[in-house]
């Protein structure tokens, strides 16, 4: 067989050739509805690559992006990766110290930023050691003033090129993208993706039981382009030639999301649970229905049962839960119904849908006990979840094995605790460091949170372990009530009766105005544990 390299530029050429007229629609800061085609995008990606060459970017050099999901960011994915540079996507919600650490650690030579993030970069600029210049993702008419030197306008750079740029030959094992984990402790760690891993992951993503993408689909990634390559969507949609719709800075805005879903005939939308809470709230309060949407893929955090039910029973939308990590490109498992399970009744299907999903070919799974012994797939035994495969990182960028994240026999330790049932469906019970140990037994904080979220008065819930003289630790439930709800602590705790084992029922509940979140929308349990470290349980 031929040894044709699996490269980003090969996808660019494919989509331009076969799906050049397929549309890409974006909301941007300077245009509420920008429209063009995959053909336009790939031509402009080549122009960008030519411009970057003139700016002196060499193969392997990193260009950092601080930008929302829109067509210019997509062009950078291809223009940078396709030309053999590395597209380093940066989360703008990180603290300034984290941004400085990440940009310096990555040794980004150039930054491409949305106009609204330029002030953020100006504030930290004096601490950035490697950055030579900034490209602002807008046209001349919208160029902001800047105190910095060497600031370029994206449209001017791209507009000066003819588009006759030829993609260079690159080794499929060379790096194409870089993303840092938004760890809640310690310095962020970089994951360097290569062309081959990116394409194998994108191929896996399009399969019917995974994301199920075809040229007929219109795809709305609400997962940011700065969060694990938006789950591979920029690549998998190009492989199949799907229409792409991107919400720009309007990510968490239920109304904009609804308008895009409805007016652009979106068939599949992807994002973390918090985004869909905003959308569901909007449609409920405004008497709308999600008539056109066929499926949502929801991952990045456990998906509440009530959300799966709302999508399915109110809107007729299939919700597929996915599990993965920055370190895994990110897809590990996706929850679709396996042959043989069709006879499950509605409730049993809902139970199954609350699991994280089953293995995707290309990502092996195992659960092990503290001594490293493999545990059975019986849906009961839980242990450390480990993975292996061609789109799982073999190390962190520039850490050279120092993170201790891999086992001696070559598996990546995910830091998640899980069960796997006899059908191969994985259920995440906790992050290793969030596990609650009560009387020597583990209690799953995720299951308790999901149960609490099923109560109609609960907007958000988190469960942490607090110390207890007899049981070592007991679960404490923190709840954000829906606006105007008068839920009492007694009623909240009574709700758990019959839904979880009695000894799992939280010992106490505290109602809070809001929960702290990380930059990627996960509840910051470390902060909650610090805040409630001295909490005296009444139960
Ligand atoms: P990140 O690298 O920021 O995408 O975070 C990855 C982590 O998110 C995983 O290790 C899990 O702890 C969590 N996660 C992702 N998907 C799920 C899911 N479906 N259920 C529970 N936790 C999840």
Overview of the structural elements:
The chain has helices at 8-18, 38-54, 71-82, 96-106, 118-124, 154-159, 195-206, 233-240, 254-263, 273-285, 305-315, 346-353, 445-453, 489-494, 525-531; strands spanning 23-28, 31-37, 62-66, 86-89, 110-113, 133-136, 151-153, 175-180, 190-194, 218-221, 243-246, 268-271, 295-299, 318-324, 331-334, 357-359, 364-368, 383-388, 412-420, 425-431, 436-438, 441-443, 458-468, 472-481, 508-511. 49% of the residues are buried. It contains 15 helices and 25 strands. Helix 1 (8-18) packs antiparallel against helix 2 (38-54), helix 2 crosses helix 3 and helix 9 (254-263) packs across helix 10 (273-285). Among the domains are: 8-21 and 31-204, 3-Layer(aba) Sandwich (Rossmann fold); 436-531, ANL, C-terminal domain (GMP Synthetase, Chain A, domain 3), CATH 3.30.300. A 13-stranded mixed sheet has the order 2-1-11-10-12-13-14-15-16-20-19-18-17, with helices on both faces. Strands 7-6-5-3-4-8-9 form a seven-stranded mixed sheet, with helices on both faces. It is of the alpha/beta class. It is globular, with a radius of gyration of 23 Å. Strand 23 and strand 24 (472-481) form a beta hairpin. It binds adenosine monophosphate. Adenosine monophosphate is lined by residues 181-182, 228, 299-302, 321, 323, 325-326, 330, 356, 414-416, 428, 431, 520.
């Amino acid at each position: 067989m031929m040894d044709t390299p699996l490269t980003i530029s090969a996808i660019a050429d494919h989509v331009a050739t076969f799906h050049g007229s397929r549309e890409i629609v974006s909301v941007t800061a300077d245009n509420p509805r920008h429209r063009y085609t995959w053909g336009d995008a790939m031509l402009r990606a080549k122009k960008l690559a030519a411009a970057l060459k003139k700016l002196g970017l060499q193969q392997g050099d990193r260009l950092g992006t601080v930008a929302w999901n829109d067509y210019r960011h997509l062009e950078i994915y291809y223009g940078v990766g396709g030309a053999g540079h590395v597209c380093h996507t940066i989360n703008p919600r990180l603290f300034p110290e984290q941004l400085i650490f990440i940009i310096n650690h990555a040794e980004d030579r150039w930054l491409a930023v949305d106009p609204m993030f330029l002030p953020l970069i100006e504030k930290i600029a004096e601490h950035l050691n490697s950055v030579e210049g900034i490209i602002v993702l807008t046209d001349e008419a919208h160029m902001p003033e800047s105190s910095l030197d060497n600031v370029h306008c994206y449209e001017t750079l791209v507009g000066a090129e003819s588009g006759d740029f030829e993609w260079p030959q690159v080794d499929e094992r060379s790096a194409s993208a870089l993303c840092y984990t938004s760890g809640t402790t310690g310095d962020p760690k970089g994951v360097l993706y290569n062309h081959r891993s990116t394409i194998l992951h994108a191929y896996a993503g399009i399969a019917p039981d995974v994301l199920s993408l075809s040229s007929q689909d219109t795809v709305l990634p609400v997962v940011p382009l700065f969060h694990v390559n938006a789950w591979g969507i920029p690549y998998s949609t190009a492989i199949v030639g799907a229409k792409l719709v991107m919400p720009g800075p309007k990510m968490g805005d239920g109304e904009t999301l609804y308008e895009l879903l409805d007016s652009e005939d979106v068939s599949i939308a992807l994002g973390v649970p918090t985004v869909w809470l905003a959308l569901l709230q909007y449609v409920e309060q405004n008497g709308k229905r999600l008539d056109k949407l066929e499926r949502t893929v929801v991952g990045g955090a456990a998906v509440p049962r009530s959300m799966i039910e709302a999508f399915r029973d109110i809107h007729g939308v299939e919700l597929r839960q996915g599990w993965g990590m920055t370190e895994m490109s990110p897809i590990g498992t996706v929850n679709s119904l396996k042959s043989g399970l069709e006879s499950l009744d509605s409730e049993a299907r809902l139970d199954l849908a609350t699991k994280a999903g089953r293995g995707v070919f290309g990502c092996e799974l195992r659960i092990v006990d503290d001594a490293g012994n493999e545990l059975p797939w019986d849906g009961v035994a839980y242990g450390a979840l480990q993975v292996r495969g061609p789109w799982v990182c073999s190390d962190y960028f520039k850490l050279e094995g120092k993170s201790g994240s891999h086992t001696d026999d070559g598996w990546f330790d995910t830091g998640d605790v899980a069960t796997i049932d006899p059908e191969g469906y994985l259920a995440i019970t906790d992050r290793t460091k969030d596990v609650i140990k009560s009387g020597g037994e583990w209690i799953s904080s995720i299951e308790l949170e999901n149960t609490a979220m099923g109560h109609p008065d609960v907007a958000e819930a988190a469960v942490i372990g607090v110390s207890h003289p007899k049981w070592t630790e007991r679960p404490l439930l923190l709840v954000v009530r829906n606006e105007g709800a008068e839920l009492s602590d007694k009623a909240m705790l009574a709700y758990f009766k019959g839904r979880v084992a009695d000894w799992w029922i939280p010992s106490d509940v505290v109602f809070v105005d809001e929960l702290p979140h990380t930059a990627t929308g996960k509840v910051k349990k470390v902060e909650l544990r610090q805040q409630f470290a001295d909490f005296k349980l009444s139960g």
